[in-house]
Amino acid sequence: MKRTIKTLILLCASLFVYSSCNNEELYEEPLVEKIINEGQLEDSDENSNSDPTSLCDFNIDNIQPNSTVILNCILDLHGNTVNIPENVTFLYEGGDIINGTLNISDNTVISGELLNPSLSISGSYPQTKDTSFYFDPRRWGIIEGKVSNEIAISNSSIFNKVINLAKEYGITNFIIDEMDAYFGVGNNPSHYALRLPSNINLMMSDNTNIRVQPNSYAWNDLILCWEADNILISGGKLWGDRYTHDYESESGTHEFGYLINFKAVHNSVIDNVELHEATGDGFHILGGSDRNADGSLKPNRRESINVTIKNCLINDNRRDNISVVDGRNIFIENNTFRKAGNDSDSPSANAKSVSPRVAVMIESREKVAPDGNSVYKWEITENVHIKNNVFENNRADIVLLSGEKAYIYQNTFKSLSGVTVGAAVDGKIYNNKFESQEGPISNSYGLLLESRTFANGEDRVKNYEVTNNTFIGYQYGILANGTDHTIKDNIITNCKRGITLGASTNLQLDNNIISSNISDSYGFYTFSFESYLKNCIIKNGEINVLGTPLFLINKNNDEDGDITIDNVNFKGRIRLQAVQNITIKNSIFSSTKFVDSDPILINNNI
To answer: Quick one: signal sequence residues (predicted)?
Structure first.
C-alpha cells in the first residue's frame, strides 16, 4: 500500500507510531485510523501513478483491529488463511485480493469489487462497503456464447453461488452490464437455471442477454423465485429455447418452460425486461401448492401477493406471454405483448404454439364439485390489474378463464381476439381501445363474455362493468352472456355485429353508440338459436349501420324473460322474429318488421 501522510511531523511525534513515517507503511494505530477516517490522507506524486496490477509490497499477516487497508495493488495470499481481527476495512482502489482465505471477525467491511472466485471468506459475514455489486461475468468464470451443456450448467452454478454470496454480504443491488451467456437447467431436481433469493435487485442493462441452454426438459425455469420476498428484476433480455428445444426425448407437451417463474412470491417487481421465445410462458405466477377445496391456504403454504410486471416487452412465447394461476394483488402495467401463440416464425411443428396461446392468461385452476353447482378452488386469482398495455399480433390478447376482481383499463388491443371472460366474476373493463388490424374477418371480436353455467343453470360469468371503451373493425364488437353486467358508454365502429346478446340475466345496456359503413352490418343482434334474455334493458344511445340496427330472433319462447328498449335512436328498420315479452318505448326507428312477435310499443317515433 503506497500512501503518504500529509502531516508528517504530527505522525512522527506520536507515541503510537511503531515505525518510521514513509510511504511503505500499513498504518494500524488508532491515531492514524482516525486521520484516515477524517480524509486527511492524500496520494504522493509517486503513488498517484501506481499500477493496480502490480503485487503489493506489504502483507496483512499481523493486521491490527480498527485498520483500513487500501487495495491499489494485487495482494496475493499464496493459498494461506489470514485471520482478520474486528473492525477492519478493505477498500478497493483498482487492486485485488487473490489466492487465499480471509477468516474475518465481526464488523469487517470489504468493497464488493474485491470479491472474486479465488478469494474465500470464512468466519463472520462481512459487510460490503456499498450495497451495490457489479457482476463481471468474465471475472467470475462465466463462459459466454454458445457452449456445451456442461459449461452452461457451470455458468448456472457460478451465478447462483455469487448472487447468494452477495446477499449474505448485505448487497441488495446485483448489477450486470455486458453479458451474453447460456445457462443450463439440468443441475437440480426443479430444473431451474438461476434462482434468486429474497431482498435482491437483479439490475441488468440493454447489453445483458440471459439465455436458456437448449434442453429436453418438459418443465424448466430460466429464473425461479420460490417463496421469496422483495425481489426486483429490471432491464436485460431473457431468451428461451423455443426454436432449439428437444421436444422428442422426454414425453409431454413441453409447455411448462418459463423464463421467469414466481412461486409464492411476495412484494416483487419485474421492470423493463424483455422476455422472448419460451417453450411455455414468458412470466408465470403461482402459489406454493394447491389450496384447500374452499380456497384457503394449506398449513405452512404461501400464495403470491403484491407482484408487479411493468414496462416490459413479452414476445413470441410458445404458450402464453403471461400466466397468472394463483395470486392476489397482481399488477400488469405499461407492457407490450406480441406474438403470443403466434406460429409465424416456427421452423418445425414441435415449436408451434400450444394452447391456450394468450398474451395474458388468468387461469386459476378450479374443479366443479360433484354437486355440479360449486367449485373446488384449488387456486385463486383476485385483484388483478391490467393497465395501459399494448397488445398486438397475438392469437388472443386476454383470457379471464376464472378468478375474481380483474380490472382491465387503458389498454390498446390490436389482435383478432381482444378480451375473453370465462368463469370469472366481479370485474371491470373500461377506457380501452380495441381495434383489429385485419378488419372484421371471421370470428374476430373485441370482448366476449362467455356463457358458462353450473348444473342448476346459475351463470359463472357475473357482474362485469364494461364502460367507455372503443371497438373498431371486428366481426363482433361485444358478445354479452352471463348475469348482472353493465355495458355503458361504449363506441362501436365498423363491426359487422355491434353488440350480440346471448343467454343472459339482468343485462343493462346504456348509451352505447354503434355505427358501421360495412354492408349488411347490425347494431344489436342475436344468434338464431333459442335462448333467453331475462330482464334485459337497452336504453339511450344511437345505432347507425348500413344493415339492421336491431335484430332479435328466437328469444324468450321457452323461458320467462323480458326485454325493455327505451329512448334509443335506431337509424333504420328494426326486426323481431319469434321474440316474446319485449317493450319498445320512447325510441326512434324508420320502420318495423315483426314476425311471430307482439311487442309493446309505447310513445315511439316512427
So the answer is: 1-23
Cβ neighbors of 39 (< 8 A, separation 6 or more) are none
Domain end among 84, 100, 129: 129
CB 213 within 8 A of CB 184: yes
Burial 385-413 (b: 16+ CB within 10 A, else e): bbbbbbbbbbbbbbbbbbbbbbbbbebeb
DSSP code string of 457-485: S-BSSEEEEEES-EEES-SEEEEEEEES-
359 is a domain residue: yes
CA distances from residue 381 to 407, 426, 537 in whole angstroms, order as listed: 12, 12, 31
Q: Show Cβ contacts of residue 15 under 8 Å, excluding neighbours closer than 6 positions.
A: none
* CA–CA dist 597, 554 (Å, integer): 10
Domain count along the chain:
3
CA distance linking residue 178 with residue 516, whole number of Å: 52
Apex 360 CA angle, 358 and 361, nearest 5: 75
**Residues in CB range of 77: below 8 A, 6 or more apart:** 97, 98, 99, 100, 101, 102, 119
Same domain, 444 and 353: no
On whether both 484 and 342 belong to a single domain, the answer is no
Q: Are residues 389 and 446 in the same domain?
A: no
Same domain flag for 259 and 350: yes
DSSP type of residue 560: -
At 356, the amino acid letter reads P
Is 237 within 8 Å of 208 (Cβ atoms)?
Answer: yes
Q: Taking 70 as the threshold, does the pLDDT of residue 231 lie above it?
A: yes
Instruction: List, in order, residues 6 or more apart from 27 with CB less than 8 Å away.
Output: 3, 5, 33, 36, 67
Chain segment 395-421, per-residue pLDDT in tens: 999 999 999 999 999 999 999 999 999
> In 10 A of CB 594, how many CB atoms?
15
Which residue has cell 448472487? 163
What the block records as the C-alpha cell of 266 is 411476495
Q: Which H or E run contains 37?
A: helix 30-37
pLDDT at 560: 80
Is 90 exceeded by the pLDDT of residue 377? yes
Question: Percent of the chain, pLDDT > 70?
Answer: 91
Q: How far is CA 485 from CA 175, 427, 501, 503, 506, in A?
A: 48, 10, 12, 12, 7
Q: Say what percent of the chain tops pLDDT 90.
A: 84
Judgement on whether residues 28 and 168 belong to the same structural domain of the protein = no
Task: Enter the C-alpha cell of residue 375.
Answer: 367449485
User: Residues 223, 323: one domain?
Assistant: yes
Same-domain pairing of 177 and 194: yes
The average pLDDT across 594-599 equals 95
The contacts of residue 279 (CB under 8 Å, 6+ apart) are 220, 240, 241, 242, 245, 254, 255, 256, 257, 318, 319
DSSP-assigned beta bridge partners for residue 135? 176
Q: How far apart are CA 139 and CA 426, in angstroms?
A: 53
Pairing of strands 256-263, 219-226: parallel
